[in-house]
Amino acid sequence: MSGRPRLDLARLPTPFEPAPRLAEHLDVASVYVKREDMAGYALGGNKLRQLDFILAEAIAAGADMLIATAGSQSNFCRSLAGAAAKLGLGCHLHLRARMGTEHVGNLLLDDIFGAEVTFTQNTDPWHPAIKDEIEAIADDYRRQGRSPFVVQLTGVSANVGVAGWMSGAAELVEDFKAIGRMPDIVVVVCGSGLTAAGLALGFKHLEVPTRVMGVSAQQPEARLRKWIIETANAAAAWMGIETRLSGQDLDIVDDEIGPGYGIPSAASLAAVKTAGRLEGLVLDPVYTGKGMAALIGAAEKGLFGKASSIVFLHSGGTPGLFTHASAFERSAPQ
Ligand SMILES: Cc1ncc(COP(=O)(O)O)c(C=O)c1O
């Protein structure tokens, strides 16, 4: 849909599966799960379709070293490391140490995929010092005769990241046609918000009435909404499409952040178990579990009619589950 060059590393279309036991539990007509966790290599996730676009740009620019920064258990960085391995490119991940440097979950996979990992003590992803640290790493590679390419979803790569999820919106519209109805709502958990931005922009562009409900796992509602609108509209201008998003075009909730970003909440731990026990789904307690907790909470508050059709975007994050085993042990038995 975006007309941008792309690789085909992700296995698309991802499955679109009915979840009838979950629908019965929520007392709605139907629930479908879009299985981005099954998007292919490196344990899947919502970043893979964005990486198909971002890495097409990197290759066109002659890159031989991909550089990115995020939290130490970043799903995005693990996906990037997996893609770099498949493409035979180097990968340097500069990760915030605060969430732990234990060799488990995504950090273990980063190592298995051959990425070079360094840590920063800086705790704020938006702090300008992080940009300086990344520039210094890129300069080092340039001095060694390498051709580094910085991938930063909340910065230089944002437009392409939105384009990736506009194509995801187009794929969902095909899924909707296959089930013969336009669902009322797609629930998606938000970090940077680029996935929700691309989906909402894509649905509006394609004149699909399905609403996007973004569940913040990180930022307060007002900041996330503002960022999503600005980023979607900048990407639309960059893609040369007329459609623009406004504040009314999507719903954002921030009451599932719980104790904080990257930290499981009682509701997310319970939601992971509910999805597992009803549908055999593997969610994680810091992203998709919070999205599912919001969906369950909204159903319990009676916000959906009995005739509603709901889509849950399973955005991946599977390795993170295993780093939170002790939180499940501490949580109340069900
Ligand atoms: C598993 C998972 N789900 C959802 C998200 C949120 O996606 P976005 O950053 O596009 O809002 C992330 C972000 O890292 C993630 O790792």
From TrEMBL:
<protein>
    <recommendedName>
        <fullName>Tryptophan synthase beta chain-like PALP domain-containing protein</fullName>
    </recommendedName>
</protein>
<feature type="active site" description="Nucleophile">
    <location>
        <position position="74"/>
    </location>
</feature>
<dbReference type="InterPro" id="IPR027278">
    <property type="entry name" value="ACCD_DCysDesulf"/>
</dbReference>
<dbReference type="GO" id="GO:0019148">
    <property type="term" value="F:D-cysteine desulfhydrase activity"/>
</dbReference>
<feature type="modified residue" description="N6-(pyridoxal phosphate)lysine">
    <location>
        <position position="47"/>
    </location>
</feature>
<keyword id="KW-0663">Pyridoxal phosphate</keyword>
<dbReference type="Pfam" id="PF00291">
    <property type="entry name" value="PALP"/>
</dbReference>
<dbReference type="InterPro" id="IPR036052">
    <property type="entry name" value="TrpB-like_PALP_sf"/>
</dbReference>
<dbReference type="InterPro" id="IPR001926">
    <property type="entry name" value="TrpB-like_PALP"/>
</dbReference>
<comment type="similarity">
    <text>Belongs to the ACC deaminase/D-cysteine desulfhydrase family.</text>
</comment>
<feature type="domain" description="Tryptophan synthase beta chain-like PALP">
    <location>
        <begin position="9"/>
        <end position="316"/>
    </location>
</feature>
